[in-house]
């Protein structure tokens, strides 16, 4: 018995270590390998390599980097999404549907504590490297810890919810349809991003000549390979900007502004994936971009209508899904925005993005719920035909008539009868 308990304890400790340091250390190793490879190809010395590795690891968690007074705060979304997925995967493997709340708290604490420890070490390494590389500035500690905490907290929440979603919902005493609302919001966001990705790919094909010009800034194969890698890393940022335009908002690349109705030109960074941006004057066909937002609203409505509910419950479920979807897109828009040196801010209009997503998810979603019979209707009691007496209405009404016959028979039995040969009064 003691050996079994000891084996269980060792296994749980190993799981906690994997959750705490698995995703963060794997990312650190990959970043170190890429950094050292770039330094070797460039025939550069290794001075400040540790500072660069630590800065890139914090950059994966959306922590800005400042070099020579110029801030790089717009970080690629793909590494962040991969980090969230890795944290969710490791947390989900360490959690089961029957885990106690104490075990769950330990798993979540490990998922947050390990990365925070590595973040503290990274800040110390950057501070030490800044004494050698004077242009490298140490990030603010609060901003660094907040970014690391938010990224891994989202991943841990997704991982725990994948195993214990129903238990968490029951313990919180929320309505059962809240889980359906979250699933509907996720489906709508994925549909919006997926369709926007198709639009981005199609726009790259249309602007193929512009993309070749952006590749022409370098003649080396390694330089073109680096541009391709950067384009892949920043592709989710471009897709989020496309999604913002698809719901009626706008995206900004410095002084350049893009929306479904107008485009103001300006200088853009020499990144091949940015060739997908439309060029002025804007053709009327780009207004059809709004179909993407409407289609994502249909996806939300279909998910909300899978389990019919009464009218007010259906409305509440759809509104919660619309609000959740708008918040998800706002978070992605914030994470995919930032400042890029002399180019200025590269971002989306957060206010109109939230309003646009909520509009398409709620209005088009509600129409879809109604059309897919997502509202439960209770059968009405049929009214008796007019002109019937009270007894006939009772006989015509649905129900159990046995009670009426029982009462009638009982009253007949209780009525006194005259004996044969006796005169009635």
From TrEMBL:
The keyword Transmembrane applies. It holds the Pfam family DUF6350. The keyword Transcription does not apply. The chain crosses the membrane at residues 20-41, 73-91, 103-126, 141-161, 182-209, 221-246, 253-277, 283-300, 312-333, 353-375. Keywords: Membrane, Transmembrane, Transmembrane helix. This is Uncharacterized protein. It comes from Mycobacterium lepromatosis.
């Amino acid at each position: 018995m003691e050996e079994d308990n000891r084996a269980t304890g060792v296994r749980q400790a190993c799981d906690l270590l994997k959750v705490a340091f698995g995703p963060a250390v794997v990312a650190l190793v990959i970043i170190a390998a890429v950094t050292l490879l770039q330094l070797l190809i460039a025939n550069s010395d290794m001075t400040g390599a540790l500072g660069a590795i630590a800065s890139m690891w914090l950059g994966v968690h959306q922590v800005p980097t400042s070099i020579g007074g110029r801030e790089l705060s717009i970080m690629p979304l793909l590494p962040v999404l991969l980090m969230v997925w890795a944290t969710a995967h490791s947390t989900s493997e360490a959690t089961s549907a029957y885990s106690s709340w104490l075990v769950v708290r330990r798993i979540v604490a490990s998922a947050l504590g390990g990365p925070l420890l590595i973040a503290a070490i990274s800040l110390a390494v950057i501070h030490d490297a800044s004494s050698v590389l004077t242009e490298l500035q140490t990030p603010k500690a609060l901003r660094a810890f907040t970014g690391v905490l938010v990224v891994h907290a989202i991943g841990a929440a997704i991982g725990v919810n994948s195993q214990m979603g129903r238990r968490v919902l029951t313990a919180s005493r929320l309505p059962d349809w809240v889980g359906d609302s979250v699933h509907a919001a996720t489906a709508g966001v994925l549909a919006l991003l997926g369709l926007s990705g198709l639009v981005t790919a199609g726009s790259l094909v249309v602007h193929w000549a512009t993309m070749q010009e952006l590749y022409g800034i370098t003649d080396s194969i390694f330089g073109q390979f680096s541009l391709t890698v950067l384009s892949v890393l920043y592709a989710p940022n471009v897709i989020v900007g496309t999604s913002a335009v698809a719901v009626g908002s706008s995206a900004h690349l410095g002084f350049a502004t893009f929306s479904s109705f107008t485009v103001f030109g300006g200088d853009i960074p020499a990144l091949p994936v940015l060739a997908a941006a439309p060029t002025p004057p804007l053709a009327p066909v780009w207004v059809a971009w709004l179909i993407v937002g409407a289609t994502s609203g249909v996806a939300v409505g279909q998910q909300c209508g899978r389990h019919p509910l009464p009218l007010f419950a259906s409305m509440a479920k759809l509104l919660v899904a619309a609000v959740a979807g708008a918040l998800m897109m706002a978070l992605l828009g914030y994470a995919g925005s930032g400042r890029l040196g002399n180019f200025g801010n590269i971002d989306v209009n957060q206010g109109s993005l939230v309003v646009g997503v909520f509009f398409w998810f709620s209005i088009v979603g509600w129409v879809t719920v109604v059309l897919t019979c997502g509202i439960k209707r209770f059968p009405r009691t049929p009214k008796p035909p007019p002109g019937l007496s009270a007894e006939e209405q009772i006989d015509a009404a649905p129900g159990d008539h046995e009670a009426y016959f029982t009462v009638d028979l009982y009253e007949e039995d209780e009525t006194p009868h005259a004996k044969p040969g006796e005169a009635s009064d």
